[in-house]
Amino acid sequence: MEYNTDRENLIIPEYGRNVQKMVDYALTIEEKEKRTAYVNLIITAMCNVNPDAKNIVDYKHKLWDHLFIISDYKLDVDSPYPMPSVQERLSKPQPLEYKNSNIKFGPYGKVLENMIEKVIEMEDNQEKQVLIALIAQQLKKSYLQWNRDSVDDELILKHFEELSKGQLKLHEDFKLNTTKDILNHKKKKPANKNKNQKNVKYTNGSNSNGKFNRNHK
Question: Is 212 helix (H, G, I), strand (E, B) or coil?
Fold first, then answer.
């Protein structure tokens, strides 16, 4: 059986030819009230034909837009939504605007840069000094995720100074954790607390062999 290639192309194929025929018929209904009532039945049919549309935000609005498009923008009915324009359909979407996030050093990302800026604003106290040390250590950890083959502590500290614009000072005796310690810490797995459990207590009058102790009261 050969498919009839003489049929009109479907304007929106996912709704099928029957929906398009219903829309064509709606255009022939003279009374606007009856036409509107019939079109509401078409909307229900469109929803049944394409149930995935319910997952779209404002799917009812989308269905009405598609209905008008299928009618070639000729359908005059009382709609809960305005008819879309041909220009809206043909116009290209506006490019998305992205926040300008220039990252000074790729391995550290923008989050660490923002953290440094926040710590700079803090009052000088013990908490601030602890955060300064933690951030410096995190710089080395982040750098090792990017490049494990070579890491120079002096380079990390230089980057820290540049990122903080020299406004965050580390203690003179501060030292970065060694590469070996950082990598070994990541490899460690949590110990099994139930393994080799000792000092098991027996209750209900049973002994270590699981037998009931008759003298137990």
Answer: strand
